[in-house]
Every structure is written in structure tokens, then in C-alpha cells.
User: Fold this.
Amino acid sequence: MNKLQWHDDYSVGDEVIDGHHKTLFRIYNILHDIVINGSKIGTFVGVVGDLVCYSEYHFRAEEQLMKDNNYCNIELHIAEHRCFTGKVTYLNDNFADFNTGMCRDLLVYLGSWLKQHVAEEDKKIVA
Assistant:
């Protein structure tokens, strides 16, 4: 489980969306540090709340870009966004049931999802 490092390979060619992705990476890295440093679960959940809010903001902007560009796979892409938001929201809503191991597992999922989604799926939007 490593921090996410932004590379130009992740760029989708849209300055606003790239800025959003960089912010999502930064929030993930804050969560990473909280888990690695063994901070209180409440601290983790507070940042997860930030991730929920920011990801919803970002997804709205990205989905509008897809609509504006008549992106052909918009329904599938939106479904992926909802899956991500659902998992993060579940953690945020049920933090009392989570332990450090579960937070680590979720962190692995979030990191993998963000890297894959940005590097592969989001690039299709502006291609």
C-alpha cells in the first residue's frame, strides 16, 4: 500500500479535471498517512467525509463534461462513479463498525480504483 504519485501519464488533457484528480490523489494520501501512522479511526472517517464530498463534486463536473462531449459510454462511466461513491459513503456512514484492518483494505481498494479509473477510463472521455 503506497501513496499515489501524480504522473503526467494520468493527465486526461483537461486542466480542470486533472486538477480534480490531483486533489483526489492528495486526499487519498492523507488517508494513507492516517492509516500508516495509526491515527484514531475518527480522524480517518473525517477525511473520508472530505473524500465523499469532493468525489461527488468531481464526478458531477466530469459527468457534465461527458454530456457536453456526447460521450458514448456515459452510463457505464457514471455507474463506476456511483460504485466508488457508494463504497466510500458506506465507510463514512458505518465508521463505528470498522477497525484498522478494514480501513487498510478500503485504502487498497480506493488507491487501486483511483489509479485505474483515472489512467484508463477517464482518458476515454477526452480521447
Summary: The chain has four helices and no strands. The chain has one domain: 14-32+40-126.
